[in-house]
Design a protein that fits this description.
Blueprint (H helix, E strand, L loop, with lengths): L1 E2 L20 E4 L2 E4 L2 E2 H7 L2 H10 L5 H13 L5 H10 L7 H15 L8 H27 L12 H10 L5 H14 L6 H10 L5 H12 L7 H12 L5 H10 L18 H16 L1 H21 L6 H10 L7 H23 L12 E2 L4
Antiparallel strand pairs: 1-5, 2-3, 3-4
The chain binds coenzyme A.
Protein backbone atom coordinates (compact mmCIF):
# COMPACT_ATOMS: atom_id res chain seq x y z
CA UNK A 1 0.00 0.00 0.00
CA UNK A 2 1.32 3.43 -0.87
CA UNK A 3 0.17 6.59 0.85
CA UNK A 4 0.83 10.18 0.00
CA UNK A 5 2.32 12.18 2.86
CA UNK A 6 2.00 15.73 1.52
CA UNK A 7 0.37 18.16 3.96
CA UNK A 8 -2.91 19.74 2.90
CA UNK A 9 -2.41 23.04 1.08
CA UNK A 10 -4.09 25.03 3.83
CA UNK A 11 -5.33 24.02 7.26
CA UNK A 12 -8.77 25.52 7.76
CA UNK A 13 -8.29 27.83 4.73
CA UNK A 14 -6.11 30.06 6.95
CA UNK A 15 -4.80 33.00 4.97
CA UNK A 16 -6.64 31.95 1.80
CA UNK A 17 -8.54 34.62 -0.13
CA UNK A 18 -11.69 32.70 -1.03
CA UNK A 19 -13.56 35.35 -3.00
CA UNK A 20 -14.50 39.02 -3.23
CA UNK A 21 -16.97 41.05 -1.18
CA UNK A 22 -18.07 44.67 -1.15
CA UNK A 23 -19.75 44.28 2.26
CA UNK A 24 -16.96 44.29 4.81
CA UNK A 25 -13.21 44.41 5.22
CA UNK A 26 -11.42 42.78 8.18
CA UNK A 27 -7.85 43.96 8.76
CA UNK A 28 -5.44 44.14 11.67
CA UNK A 29 -7.06 46.62 14.07
CA UNK A 30 -9.54 47.78 11.45
CA UNK A 31 -13.04 46.58 10.69
CA UNK A 32 -15.01 48.37 7.99
CA UNK A 33 -18.64 47.88 6.90
CA UNK A 34 -19.20 49.15 3.35
CA UNK A 35 -16.54 51.83 3.80
CA UNK A 36 -17.46 52.92 7.36
CA UNK A 37 -15.10 52.08 10.26
CA UNK A 38 -16.68 50.06 13.08
CA UNK A 39 -15.84 52.61 15.80
CA UNK A 40 -17.61 55.31 13.77
CA UNK A 41 -20.68 53.09 13.39
CA UNK A 42 -20.63 51.99 17.06
CA UNK A 43 -20.59 55.62 18.16
CA UNK A 44 -22.94 57.21 15.65
CA UNK A 45 -25.22 54.63 13.99
CA UNK A 46 -28.07 52.71 15.59
CA UNK A 47 -28.39 49.01 14.74
CA UNK A 48 -31.23 49.58 12.27
CA UNK A 49 -29.01 52.02 10.34
CA UNK A 50 -26.18 49.47 10.34
CA UNK A 51 -28.60 46.78 9.12
CA UNK A 52 -29.81 49.02 6.28
CA UNK A 53 -26.21 49.87 5.35
CA UNK A 54 -25.27 46.18 5.14
CA UNK A 55 -28.39 45.03 3.29
CA UNK A 56 -28.94 47.91 0.90
CA UNK A 57 -25.35 49.13 0.52
CA UNK A 58 -25.50 52.79 1.52
CA UNK A 59 -26.18 54.95 4.57
CA UNK A 60 -29.96 55.52 4.82
CA UNK A 61 -31.40 59.03 4.69
CA UNK A 62 -34.10 59.91 7.23
CA UNK A 63 -36.99 58.77 5.00
CA UNK A 64 -35.28 55.49 4.09
CA UNK A 65 -34.50 54.76 7.75
CA UNK A 66 -38.03 55.51 8.87
CA UNK A 67 -39.52 53.26 6.15
CA UNK A 68 -37.01 50.49 6.98
CA UNK A 69 -37.85 50.64 10.70
CA UNK A 70 -41.59 50.53 9.96
CA UNK A 71 -41.09 47.54 7.68
CA UNK A 72 -39.16 45.64 10.38
CA UNK A 73 -41.76 46.43 13.05
CA UNK A 74 -44.45 45.13 10.70
CA UNK A 75 -42.73 41.75 10.34
CA UNK A 76 -42.16 41.07 14.07
CA UNK A 77 -45.10 38.74 14.72
CA UNK A 78 -44.71 35.02 13.94
CA UNK A 79 -47.21 32.65 12.33
CA UNK A 80 -49.20 30.67 14.91
CA UNK A 81 -47.53 27.43 13.83
CA UNK A 82 -44.11 28.86 14.64
CA UNK A 83 -45.27 30.10 18.06
CA UNK A 84 -46.65 26.63 18.82
CA UNK A 85 -43.39 25.03 17.67
CA UNK A 86 -41.41 27.30 20.03
CA UNK A 87 -43.72 26.38 22.89
CA UNK A 88 -43.27 22.69 22.12
CA UNK A 89 -39.51 22.51 21.66
CA UNK A 90 -38.10 25.17 24.02
CA UNK A 91 -38.85 23.07 27.08
CA UNK A 92 -37.85 19.71 25.63
CA UNK A 93 -35.20 17.94 27.73
CA UNK A 94 -31.76 19.16 26.69
CA UNK A 95 -33.16 21.94 24.49
CA UNK A 96 -30.42 24.36 23.48
CA UNK A 97 -31.57 27.88 22.46
CA UNK A 98 -29.34 27.92 19.36
CA UNK A 99 -30.93 24.65 18.20
CA UNK A 100 -34.44 25.96 18.87
CA UNK A 101 -33.63 29.09 16.88
CA UNK A 102 -32.18 27.07 13.99
CA UNK A 103 -35.25 24.80 13.87
CA UNK A 104 -37.74 27.67 13.94
CA UNK A 105 -35.90 29.67 11.26
CA UNK A 106 -35.93 26.59 9.04
CA UNK A 107 -39.65 26.08 9.77
CA UNK A 108 -40.43 29.73 8.92
CA UNK A 109 -39.28 29.02 5.37
CA UNK A 110 -42.33 26.75 5.04
CA UNK A 111 -44.67 29.70 5.66
CA UNK A 112 -43.00 32.03 3.22
CA UNK A 113 -44.57 32.02 -0.24
CA UNK A 114 -41.30 33.57 -1.49
CA UNK A 115 -39.10 30.91 0.11
CA UNK A 116 -37.87 29.49 -3.21
CA UNK A 117 -37.50 32.90 -4.90
CA UNK A 118 -33.85 33.98 -4.89
CA UNK A 119 -34.34 37.23 -6.81
CA UNK A 120 -32.84 40.32 -5.13
CA UNK A 121 -36.30 41.81 -4.51
CA UNK A 122 -37.57 38.66 -2.75
CA UNK A 123 -34.35 38.33 -0.76
CA UNK A 124 -34.46 41.94 0.43
CA UNK A 125 -37.94 41.22 1.79
CA UNK A 126 -36.89 37.93 3.39
CA UNK A 127 -33.85 39.63 4.97
CA UNK A 128 -36.11 42.16 6.68
CA UNK A 129 -38.53 39.45 7.77
CA UNK A 130 -35.77 37.34 9.34
CA UNK A 131 -34.22 40.42 10.96
CA UNK A 132 -37.59 41.16 12.58
CA UNK A 133 -38.56 37.57 13.42
CA UNK A 134 -35.35 36.36 15.09
CA UNK A 135 -35.73 38.59 18.19
CA UNK A 136 -39.33 37.39 18.45
CA UNK A 137 -38.19 33.75 18.39
CA UNK A 138 -35.60 34.51 21.09
CA UNK A 139 -38.14 36.39 23.20
CA UNK A 140 -40.86 33.73 22.95
CA UNK A 141 -38.33 30.98 23.69
CA UNK A 142 -37.12 32.76 26.82
CA UNK A 143 -40.72 33.34 27.94
CA UNK A 144 -41.39 29.59 27.66
CA UNK A 145 -38.16 28.75 29.52
CA UNK A 146 -39.07 31.21 32.29
CA UNK A 147 -42.66 29.93 32.46
CA UNK A 148 -44.29 33.31 31.71
CA UNK A 149 -46.97 34.11 29.14
CA UNK A 150 -45.67 35.01 25.68
CA UNK A 151 -44.69 38.68 25.55
CA UNK A 152 -45.87 40.25 22.30
CA UNK A 153 -43.62 42.70 20.41
CA UNK A 154 -43.99 46.38 21.36
CA UNK A 155 -44.30 48.38 18.14
CA UNK A 156 -43.26 51.59 19.90
CA UNK A 157 -39.81 50.18 20.73
CA UNK A 158 -36.71 50.08 18.54
CA UNK A 159 -35.01 46.83 17.62
CA UNK A 160 -32.72 46.39 20.67
CA UNK A 161 -35.26 47.62 23.22
CA UNK A 162 -37.99 45.38 21.77
CA UNK A 163 -35.67 42.38 21.94
CA UNK A 164 -34.99 42.95 25.66
CA UNK A 165 -38.69 43.66 26.28
CA UNK A 166 -39.82 40.42 24.65
CA UNK A 167 -37.28 38.38 26.61
CA UNK A 168 -38.32 39.76 29.99
CA UNK A 169 -41.70 41.51 29.79
CA UNK A 170 -39.98 44.53 31.34
CA UNK A 171 -39.16 47.81 29.65
CA UNK A 172 -35.36 48.02 29.45
CA UNK A 173 -33.42 51.07 30.62
CA UNK A 174 -31.98 53.42 28.02
CA UNK A 175 -28.51 52.30 29.10
CA UNK A 176 -29.19 48.57 28.61
CA UNK A 177 -30.81 49.31 25.27
CA UNK A 178 -27.78 51.34 24.13
CA UNK A 179 -25.31 48.63 25.16
CA UNK A 180 -27.26 45.88 23.38
CA UNK A 181 -27.77 48.10 20.34
CA UNK A 182 -24.01 48.71 20.04
CA UNK A 183 -23.26 45.01 20.62
CA UNK A 184 -25.57 44.17 17.69
CA UNK A 185 -23.70 46.62 15.46
CA UNK A 186 -20.34 45.14 16.51
CA UNK A 187 -21.59 41.61 15.82
CA UNK A 188 -23.42 42.41 12.57
CA UNK A 189 -20.79 41.49 10.00
CA UNK A 190 -17.30 40.04 9.66
CA UNK A 191 -16.55 39.03 6.04
CA UNK A 192 -15.81 35.32 5.43
CA UNK A 193 -16.10 34.07 9.03
CA UNK A 194 -17.17 30.43 9.35
CA UNK A 195 -20.94 30.93 9.54
CA UNK A 196 -21.05 33.52 6.75
CA UNK A 197 -18.86 31.34 4.57
CA UNK A 198 -21.21 28.42 5.30
CA UNK A 199 -24.16 30.56 4.22
CA UNK A 200 -22.33 31.51 1.01
CA UNK A 201 -21.50 27.88 0.23
CA UNK A 202 -25.20 27.00 0.58
CA UNK A 203 -26.31 30.07 -1.39
CA UNK A 204 -23.68 29.23 -4.03
CA UNK A 205 -25.78 26.22 -5.06
CA UNK A 206 -28.71 28.63 -5.62
CA UNK A 207 -30.44 27.20 -2.56
CA UNK A 208 -32.88 29.48 -0.73
CA UNK A 209 -32.15 32.12 1.92
CA UNK A 210 -33.90 30.30 4.81
CA UNK A 211 -31.76 27.23 4.11
CA UNK A 212 -28.56 29.27 3.97
CA UNK A 213 -29.40 31.07 7.22
CA UNK A 214 -30.30 27.77 8.91
CA UNK A 215 -26.85 26.42 7.99
CA UNK A 216 -25.21 29.62 9.21
CA UNK A 217 -26.92 29.34 12.61
CA UNK A 218 -25.65 25.76 12.91
CA UNK A 219 -22.10 26.99 12.18
CA UNK A 220 -22.27 29.96 14.55
CA UNK A 221 -23.25 27.72 17.46
CA UNK A 222 -19.80 26.12 17.72
CA UNK A 223 -17.58 27.26 20.63
CA UNK A 224 -14.72 28.11 18.25
CA UNK A 225 -17.05 30.65 16.62
CA UNK A 226 -20.11 32.43 18.09
CA UNK A 227 -20.61 29.92 20.88
CA UNK A 228 -17.50 31.39 22.52
CA UNK A 229 -19.46 34.24 24.12
CA UNK A 230 -21.39 31.74 26.25
CA UNK A 231 -18.33 29.62 26.99
CA UNK A 232 -16.32 32.70 28.02
CA UNK A 233 -18.92 33.59 30.66
CA UNK A 234 -19.25 29.96 31.78
CA UNK A 235 -15.49 30.01 32.37
CA UNK A 236 -15.61 33.22 34.44
CA UNK A 237 -18.40 31.74 36.55
CA UNK A 238 -16.29 28.64 37.05
CA UNK A 239 -13.32 30.79 38.12
CA UNK A 240 -15.69 32.47 40.55
CA UNK A 241 -13.48 35.18 42.05
CA UNK A 242 -10.40 37.30 41.33
CA UNK A 243 -8.33 35.36 43.85
CA UNK A 244 -8.93 32.12 41.91
CA UNK A 245 -7.68 33.44 38.56
CA UNK A 246 -3.96 32.64 39.02
CA UNK A 247 -4.53 28.99 39.87
CA UNK A 248 -7.23 28.58 37.20
CA UNK A 249 -4.94 29.97 34.51
CA UNK A 250 -1.92 27.96 35.68
CA UNK A 251 -4.01 24.80 35.41
CA UNK A 252 -5.39 25.82 31.99
CA UNK A 253 -1.87 26.40 30.66
CA UNK A 254 -0.61 23.13 32.15
CA UNK A 255 -3.43 21.18 30.49
CA UNK A 256 -3.24 23.21 27.24
CA UNK A 257 -6.91 24.14 27.60
CA UNK A 258 -8.19 26.85 25.29
CA UNK A 259 -9.40 29.99 27.01
CA UNK A 260 -12.70 30.89 25.37
CA UNK A 261 -13.06 34.42 24.05
CA UNK A 262 -9.35 34.70 23.23
CA UNK A 263 -7.47 34.44 19.97
CA UNK A 264 -8.66 35.02 16.43
CA UNK A 265 -7.95 33.59 13.00
CA UNK A 266 -7.37 37.04 11.48
CA UNK A 267 -6.68 39.48 14.33
CA UNK A 268 -3.33 38.66 15.85
CA UNK A 269 -2.79 42.05 17.55
CA UNK A 270 -6.27 42.30 19.02
CA UNK A 271 -9.89 42.46 17.92
CA UNK A 272 -10.91 46.08 17.33
CA UNK A 273 -14.44 45.37 18.59
CA UNK A 274 -13.37 44.01 22.00
CA UNK A 275 -12.24 47.27 23.68
CA UNK A 276 -15.33 49.09 22.38
CA UNK A 277 -17.69 46.57 23.99
CA UNK A 278 -15.51 46.17 27.09
CA UNK A 279 -15.62 49.92 27.85
CA UNK A 280 -19.39 50.13 27.34
CA UNK A 281 -20.03 46.95 29.35
CA UNK A 282 -17.81 48.03 32.24
CA UNK A 283 -19.51 51.44 32.36
CA UNK A 284 -22.94 49.79 32.49
CA UNK A 285 -21.74 47.31 35.14
CA UNK A 286 -20.42 50.14 37.33
CA UNK A 287 -23.87 51.72 37.37
CA UNK A 288 -25.43 48.36 38.33
CA UNK A 289 -23.07 47.60 41.22
CA UNK A 290 -20.41 45.22 42.57
CA UNK A 291 -22.28 42.05 41.57
CA UNK A 292 -21.83 43.15 37.94
CA UNK A 293 -18.34 44.73 38.12
CA UNK A 294 -17.03 41.61 39.86
CA UNK A 295 -17.02 39.71 36.57
CA UNK A 296 -15.14 42.49 34.80
CA UNK A 297 -12.51 42.35 37.60
CA UNK A 298 -12.16 38.58 37.10
CA UNK A 299 -12.13 38.95 33.30
CA UNK A 300 -9.54 41.73 33.31
CA UNK A 301 -7.19 39.58 35.34
CA UNK A 302 -7.64 36.66 32.92
CA UNK A 303 -7.00 39.09 30.07
CA UNK A 304 -3.77 40.37 31.65
CA UNK A 305 -2.41 36.86 32.20
CA UNK A 306 -3.28 35.82 28.61
CA UNK A 307 -1.47 38.86 27.24
CA UNK A 308 1.55 38.66 29.57
CA UNK A 309 2.10 34.92 29.23
CA UNK A 310 0.71 34.02 25.78
CA UNK A 311 0.48 37.33 23.92
CA UNK A 312 -3.08 36.35 22.98
CA UNK A 313 -5.72 39.10 22.94
CA UNK A 314 -9.43 38.83 23.77
CA UNK A 315 -11.88 38.74 20.87
CA UNK A 316 -15.29 40.44 20.97
CA UNK A 317 -16.90 37.37 22.58
CA UNK A 318 -14.96 37.90 25.81
CA UNK A 319 -16.37 41.33 26.80
CA UNK A 320 -19.71 40.25 25.35
CA UNK A 321 -20.03 37.52 27.98
CA UNK A 322 -19.37 39.89 30.91
CA UNK A 323 -21.54 42.64 29.40
CA UNK A 324 -24.60 40.50 28.74
CA UNK A 325 -24.21 38.95 32.21
CA UNK A 326 -24.19 42.41 33.80
CA UNK A 327 -27.42 43.20 31.93
CA UNK A 328 -29.04 40.02 33.30
CA UNK A 329 -29.33 38.22 29.95
CA UNK A 330 -29.38 34.43 30.45
CA UNK A 331 -26.09 32.87 29.27
CA UNK A 332 -27.66 30.36 26.79
CA UNK A 333 -29.16 33.32 24.88
CA UNK A 334 -25.80 35.04 24.19
CA UNK A 335 -25.19 33.21 20.91
CA UNK A 336 -28.83 33.64 19.79
CA UNK A 337 -28.32 37.41 20.34
CA UNK A 338 -25.26 37.12 18.10
CA UNK A 339 -27.62 35.60 15.48
CA UNK A 340 -29.99 38.57 15.93
CA UNK A 341 -27.08 40.77 14.80
CA UNK A 342 -25.26 38.58 12.26
CA UNK A 343 -28.49 37.87 10.34
CA UNK A 344 -27.83 41.20 8.62
CA UNK A 345 -24.33 40.20 7.46
CA UNK A 346 -25.48 36.71 6.43
CA UNK A 347 -28.38 38.04 4.36
CA UNK A 348 -26.13 40.65 2.70
CA UNK A 349 -23.67 37.89 1.78
CA UNK A 350 -26.41 35.55 0.52
CA UNK A 351 -27.66 38.38 -1.73
CA UNK A 352 -24.09 39.01 -2.92
CA UNK A 353 -23.44 35.30 -3.52
CA UNK A 354 -26.68 34.80 -5.45
CA UNK A 355 -25.77 37.77 -7.64
CA UNK A 356 -22.56 35.99 -8.71
CA UNK A 357 -24.42 32.82 -9.78
CA UNK A 358 -21.23 30.94 -8.94
CA UNK A 359 -20.97 27.56 -7.22
CA UNK A 360 -18.37 27.36 -4.40
CA UNK A 361 -16.50 24.11 -4.78
CA UNK A 362 -12.80 24.01 -3.90
CA UNK A 363 -10.59 20.97 -4.40
CA UNK A 364 -8.98 18.78 -1.75
CA UNK A 365 -5.54 17.27 -1.69
CA UNK A 366 -6.04 13.51 -1.35
CA UNK A 367 -3.92 11.98 1.43
CA UNK A 368 -5.61 8.55 1.77
CA UNK A 369 -4.53 5.10 0.55
CA UNK A 370 -4.19 4.35 -3.18
CA UNK A 371 -4.21 1.37 -5.54
CA UNK A 372 -6.13 -1.00 -3.20
CA UNK A 373 -7.99 -4.02 -4.70
CA UNK A 374 -11.52 -4.91 -3.41
C1 LIG B 1 -10.41 31.59 17.26
C2 LIG B 1 -9.48 30.40 17.10
C3 LIG B 1 -10.32 29.20 16.69
C4 LIG B 1 -8.47 30.74 16.01
O1 LIG B 1 -7.80 29.58 15.73
P1 LIG B 1 -6.55 29.46 14.75
O2 LIG B 1 -6.39 30.65 13.90
O3 LIG B 1 -6.71 28.14 14.06
O4 LIG B 1 -5.34 29.45 15.73
P2 LIG B 1 -4.89 28.23 16.61
O5 LIG B 1 -6.05 27.63 17.32
O6 LIG B 1 -4.07 27.31 15.75
O7 LIG B 1 -3.96 28.96 17.66
C5 LIG B 1 -2.60 29.30 17.45
C6 LIG B 1 -1.86 29.09 18.76
O8 LIG B 1 -2.44 29.96 19.76
C7 LIG B 1 -2.99 29.17 20.80
N1 LIG B 1 -4.31 29.73 21.13
C8 LIG B 1 -5.16 30.32 20.27
N2 LIG B 1 -6.27 30.67 20.90
C9 LIG B 1 -6.12 30.28 22.17
C10 LIG B 1 -6.93 30.36 23.30
N3 LIG B 1 -8.16 30.91 23.21
N4 LIG B 1 -6.50 29.87 24.46
C11 LIG B 1 -5.28 29.31 24.55
N5 LIG B 1 -4.44 29.20 23.50
C12 LIG B 1 -4.87 29.67 22.33
C13 LIG B 1 -3.18 27.78 20.22
O9 LIG B 1 -3.17 26.79 21.22
C14 LIG B 1 -2.00 27.68 19.30
O10 LIG B 1 -0.86 27.42 20.06
P3 LIG B 1 0.29 26.44 19.50
O11 LIG B 1 0.79 27.12 18.26
O12 LIG B 1 1.25 26.39 20.62
O13 LIG B 1 -0.38 25.14 19.22
C15 LIG B 1 -8.73 30.11 18.41
O14 LIG B 1 -8.01 31.26 18.80
C16 LIG B 1 -9.67 29.66 19.51
O15 LIG B 1 -10.00 28.47 19.59
N6 LIG B 1 -10.12 30.60 20.41
C17 LIG B 1 -11.05 30.25 21.44
C18 LIG B 1 -12.46 30.24 20.91
C19 LIG B 1 -12.96 31.62 20.59
O16 LIG B 1 -12.84 32.54 21.38
N7 LIG B 1 -13.60 31.73 19.42
C20 LIG B 1 -14.17 32.98 18.97
C21 LIG B 1 -13.37 33.53 17.82
S1 LIG B 1 -13.95 35.14 17.36
Amino acid sequence: MTTTTAAPKSQGLAGVTAGETAICSVGQGKLVYRGYAIDDLAEHACFEETAFLLLVGHKPDAAELSAFKDEIVGYRRLPVGAVNLIKEISKAPGAVPMDVLRTVVSYLGQFDPNCQDISPAAEQTKSRQLLAQIPTIIGHMQNVIDGRDIVEPDDSLGHAANLLWMMTGQKPSDESTKVVDVSLTLYAEHDFNASTFASRVIAGTNADMHGAVTGAIAALKGPLHGGANEKAMDMLLEVGAVENVDSYMANAFATKAKIMGFGHRVYKQGDHRAPILHALGREAAEKIGPEATKWFDVGEKVQKIMLDEKDIHPNVDFPCGMTYYALGIPVPQYTPLFVAARITGWCAHILEQHATQKLIRPIAEYVGPENLKW
